[in-house]
Write a sequence for this structure.
């Protein structure tokens, strides 16, 4: 019995429990897929499901990774001094925050879905782009002030 | 320079093989896996060397994992509660037919009156707050996606496929949820169906992932001390020792940020999103904190200046429908009574302060005045009430009607409201009359009511 388990493990690459767990997950996903297959929009759902993972791994990640690399190159050793606050991070943090706000609140900022928005709220989406730009400016400004304060503090000591 | 500071035990591939026996073992068919491993696509080695962050490692991944392990089940459960709040027993929770994924039937309570406000607020608010943690967790494990060979056994192939369900699932839920609360239905499929079933696919993958990785996470958490990490600045930051999962970079670069800095950054981004979301539940100027969300804005001033979920214009309610000719029809057991607005105002009036909360994760507390639903039931002689079907003047739309449970009809605070904050309802808020029931989802608090049919055991 123990020998059989060991042989299964060697051939499959993990204990039996591993296979059972995965089969369970695939069974639920498969059941959902079969159920939704009859929906006329099933194809779209699949595209958005797989597309979300692809968009993150092969679009969003490379973009922010590349942006960070370019920023680091541009700042060079100045960006990360041996001691004291790093200017690099004082650009990274507000940039990331601004980018995140853009992604999360993108429909309002880009005024997507205008008719539905109007029907639901009786309003338009005009203010959001300006507010996001303002938030971005405030974030960068706060970061710059924070940098100045930290630098002054680290020099004082 | 950082490479020199890593412990020698894991420095060479041979060393890591010794430290983790069986790690490099290939499953069946062994030759195929070996062939795959020996033939990496061009650039695979370059990509592997490009992962330079000295912060990636089992400890950091485990910290993010732990936060998500606590937070995501809460988002899932509050989501299911929201589904239940729509009374699926009347076929008015969407999606209607969910087969085996049906939830146990139970009557959504009317107490506490802020119940739906809480569950829906948590679902949307916590869901948004966790976005930076999800992205950080994905960042911390991303090198694994590009590792070569992609698998060494059938077990690893299946596990990677399940990760597509996990990652696709959480991102799908986040994206559809975010688009829904901002009314941008770009995806062109039914939101409810997609969000409900997507959640189950994700949770199935999550349970599997947690079962497989829980021990790794606990080991990872124990591998470093949180207080020490929180006291370690950038200059003292060292990479974690090489791990069996190869999360730690093979050639870590010098640190540009400490672990405490990274945690503060991710936590700060979460706090920022939380702050910009919670404003949707506040009154007056505080509501504006939800700077970038639809309900951060007051549509008007005065007693009826609070947000709406559907305008009268969008609902197709015309002035002629709600003029002096408007009548409320009450039905029960074959009897029928019609009342005009003056007649309703002549009945006993009750004033209650109740929250109204919407599925998009916003709420507002207002003071409503009107006739108790149970008084209306008595007016038409309804007895032994099991439910009430409320129909609006709206011509179309999913929510032009709603069925209320017995407890929702009979609650002393359940009103057919005629006035709000001391003035007549405005047209957008449902004039001439609207339903307001404690803890009931906003869309079921039917506006522009035309007819209420009480159903009961005796002739309902």
């Amino acid at each position: 019995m123990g020998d059989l388990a060991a042989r299964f493990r060697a051939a499959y690459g993990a204990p039996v429990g591993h296979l059972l767990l995965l089969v369970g997950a695939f069974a639920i996903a498969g059941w959902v897929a079969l159920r939704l297959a009859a929906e006329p929009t099933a194809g779209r759902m699949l595209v958005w499901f797989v597309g979300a993972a692809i968009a993150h791994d092969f679009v969003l990640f490379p973009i922010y990774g590349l942006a960070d690399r370019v920023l680091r190159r541009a700042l060079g050793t100045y960006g990360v001094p041996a001691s004291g606050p790093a200017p690099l991070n004082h650009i990274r943090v507000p940039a990331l925050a601004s980018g995140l706000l853009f992604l999360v609140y993108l429909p309002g900022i880009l005024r997507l879905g205008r008719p539905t928005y109007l029907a639901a709220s009786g309003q338009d989406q005009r203010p959001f782009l300006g507010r996001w730009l303002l938030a971005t400016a405030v974030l960068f400004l706060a970061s710059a002030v924070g940098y100045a304060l930290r630098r002054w503090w680290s020099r004082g000591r | 320079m950082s490479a020199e500071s890593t412990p020698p035990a894991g420095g060479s591939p041979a060393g890591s093989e010794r430290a983790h026996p069986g790690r490099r073992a290939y499953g069946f068919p062994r030759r195929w896996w070996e062939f795959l491993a020996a033939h990496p696509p061009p650039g695979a080695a370059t990509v592997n060397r490009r992962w330079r962050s000295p912060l990636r490692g089992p400890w950091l991944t485990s910290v993010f994992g732990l936060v998500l392990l606590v937070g995501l089940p809460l988002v899932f459960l509050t989501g299911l509660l929201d589904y239940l709040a729509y009374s699926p027993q009347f076929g008015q929770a969407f999606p209607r037919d969910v087969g085996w994924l049906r939830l146990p039937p139970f009557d959504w309570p009317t107490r506490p009156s802020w119940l739906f406000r809480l569950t829906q607020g948590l679902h949307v608010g916590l869901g948004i707050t966790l976005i930076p943690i999800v992205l950080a967790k994905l960042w911390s494990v991303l090198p694994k996606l590009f590792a070569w060979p992609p698998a060494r056994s059938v077990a690893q192939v299946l596990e990677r496929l399940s990760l597509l369900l996990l990652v696709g699932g959480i991102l799908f839920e986040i994206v559809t949820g975010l688009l829904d609360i901002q009314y941008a239905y770009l995806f062109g499929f039914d939101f409810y169906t997609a969000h409900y079933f997507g959640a189950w696919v994700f949770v199935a993958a999550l349970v599997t992932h947690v079962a497989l990785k829980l021990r790794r996470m606990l080991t990872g958490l124990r591998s470093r001390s949180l207080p020490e990490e929180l006291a370690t600045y950038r200059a003292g930051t060292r990479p974690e020792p090489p791990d069996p999962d190869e999360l730690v970079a093979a050639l870590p670069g010098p640190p540009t940020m400490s672990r405490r800095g990274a945690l503060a950054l991710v936590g700060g981004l979460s706090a920022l999103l939380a702050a910009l979301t919670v404003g949707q539940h506040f009154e007056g100027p505080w509501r504006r904190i939800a700077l970038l969300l639809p309900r951060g804005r007051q549509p008007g001033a005065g007693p009826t200046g609070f947000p709406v979920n559907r305008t009268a214009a969008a609902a197709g309610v015309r002035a002629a429908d709600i003029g002096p000719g408007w009548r409320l029809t009450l039905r029960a057991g074959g009897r029928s009574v019609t009342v005009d607005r003056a007649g309703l105002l002549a009945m006993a009036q009750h004033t209650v302060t109740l929250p109204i909360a919407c599925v998009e994760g916003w709420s507002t507390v207002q003071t409503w005045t009107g006739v108790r639903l149970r008084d209306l039931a008595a007016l038409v002689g309804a007895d032994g009430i099991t439910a009430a079907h409320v129909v609006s003047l709206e011509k179309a739309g999913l929510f032009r009607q709603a069925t209320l449970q017995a407890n929702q009809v009979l609650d002393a605070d359940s009103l057919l409201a005629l006035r709000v904050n001391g003035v007549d309802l405005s047209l957008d808020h449902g004039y001439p009359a609207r339903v307001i029931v404690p803890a009931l989802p906003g869309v079921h608090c039917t506006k522009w009511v035309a007819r209420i049919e009480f159903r009961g055991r005796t002739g309902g």
About this structure: The CA atoms of residues 90 and 144 of chain A lie 7 Å apart.
